[in-house]
Design goal:
mainly alpha, Growth Hormone, Chain: A, two-stranded antiparallel sheet, 2 strands, 72% helix
């Protein structure tokens, strides 16, 4: 591991700074949108802009990297991400923020593609599992640290946005000064969505539902927290807890999925997350407000208590995140159970597209439910898609018997991973050995 870090310190340093800034920016915007009195629909649409840019960039950026080169593209997109953070503070307008978030998503997918391509070049068949683990650790730790930066200054001020821009700019320095040559870019392929649904109907369906769930967790949980009158410090602690739980729960849940039918583990995780979501609604003290269609008023439902129990609310949201965030890797492993090893990376590319479709629509649908039902519409949104996963999973278990594939095992992955990053999974069977690796 020491040798990997020594040979790639510039890459890891730059990426760590970028992911900290990225985690800071996403939730800062959620909090600021509440302070600026943006309605839920405007906020949700703004958050969806990021995933739309991410999705579009996934098609355009690989060709750009192949033509221009890694370092130039990395510098361009880090600068673009820095610029987009400043746009938010100069033009406080929902429509402008949607476009700025699109620009951020477009930039971030470019950064992820370049970083993962570089990691592939640095790794060989003996070290890629360690490289992938380090990549995942940096991603989740960076997102957690980024949320702590919410306490640096009042989100109403301009300083947090300047800090984000500064961090993106600083991240360029170690990358641009590295002596090592950038790798030759290798394009990846993907299996068509229609074929994926034939290969694993449940894995594909669960992945699109996962997109609907993950996007609001990463974008609207901060909106929920501020709307529920939590302080900035409390909100940052909650967000850090969700990120850390999402990382730590990957290993025990993944281990269970390698020992038992993976569909049972996906259904069980969804069921547990649904229960935690229900408990979060109960202890929030907010209930839900449903518009009365006959009179211009709303009907409020307070379930068991009208007083928030913050400790229990934090606990249930963190457990919800821990049960939920491994779903991405579980779905990928489930699909891989049905295909030969040489198709693992292509399947990952197709599943990324499916996930992206859900992630684009997720914040918009969730914000509409929050607008209709109040802040706890966030958890109602989660429950809807968890229930869909559970029902369809039970149905598919009655249609197909479980078949173990010894080539496929659960590998913890960050949710922003691209097919290039999936190649780092030792199970893919991709040969990463090259002359430079062997010399080092």
């Amino acid at each position: 591991m020491y040798k990997i870090i020594k040979n790639s310190w510039a890459l890891f340093t730059g990426f760590t700074i970028i992911i900290i800034s990225h985690g800071f920016q996403g939730n800062l915007l959620g909090i600021r949108s509440v302070l600026e009195n943006f309605n839920y629909i405007a906020t949700g649409t703004m958050m969806s802009g990021y995933f739309a840019g991410f999705f579009v960039g996934a098609y355009i950026i690989p060709n750009l990297v192949a033509k221009v080169g890694h370092i130039r593209v990395f510098a361009a997109f880090a600068s673009m991400a820095s610029l987009s953070s400043l746009v938010h503070v100069v033009f406080v307008d929902p429509l402008v923020w949607v476009l700025a978030r699109f620009l951020t998503g477009f930039s971030m997918i470019g950064i992820f593609v370049i970083v993962e391509s570089w990691l592939n070049d640095r790794a060989n068949n003996k070290t890629r599992g360690k490289v992938l683990s380090l990549y995942m650790f940096i991603t989740f730790a960076g997102l957690a640290l980024g949320n702590l930066l919410l306490n640096v200054s009042n989100p109403k001020n301009y300083e947090p946005f300047i800090l984000i821009s500064l961090l993106f700019s600083i991240a360029l320095v170690p990358i641009l000064l590295t002596k090592r040559k950038p790798p030759k870019f290798k394009k990846t392929t993907s299996i068509k969505i229609k074929e994926l649904f034939k290969i694993s109907p449940f894995g594909s369906f669960s992945m699109i539902c996962t997109g609907f769930i993950f996007a609001p967790i990463f974008t609207l949980l901060s909106v929920y927290a501020i709307t529920m009158k939590l302080s900035i410090f409390e909100t940052s602690l909650l967000l850090v807890g969700t990120m850390l739980a999402g990382a730590l729960f990957q290993w025990p849940i993944g281990s269970l999925s390698d020992r038992y039918d993976r569909r049972i583990i996906i259904i069980g995780s969804s069921l547990a997350a649904s229960v935690f979501a229900i408990f979060a609604v109960i202890v929030s003290g907010a209930g839900a407000s449903i518009p009365n269609l006959f009179v211009e008023t709303t009907v409020s439902f307070n379930y068991f208590s009208t007083t928030m129990d913050k400790t229990k609310l934090f606990l249930f949201i963190i457990l919800l995140s821990g049960a939920t965030l491994p779903l991405f890797s579980l779905n990928l492993a489930l699909v891989n159970d049905q295909i030969p090893k040489e198709k693992f990376v292509a399947a990952g590319g197709g599943l990324n597209i499916i996930f992206g479709i859900g992630a684009i629509a997720g914040p918009i649908m969730c914000s509409a439910l929050m607008n209709l039902l109040g802040p706890n519409g966030l958890f109602i949104h989660f429950i809807i898609f968890f229930v869909l996963i559970i029902i369809f999973g039970i149905y598919r278990m009655n249609q197909r018997k479980y078949e173990d594939n010894p080539d496929s095992t659960f590998t913890p992955l960050p949710t922003n991973i691209t097919p290039l990053g999936i190649e780092l999974d030792p199970d893919t069977g991709v040969d990463l050995s090259n002359t430079e690796n062997k010399k080092s």
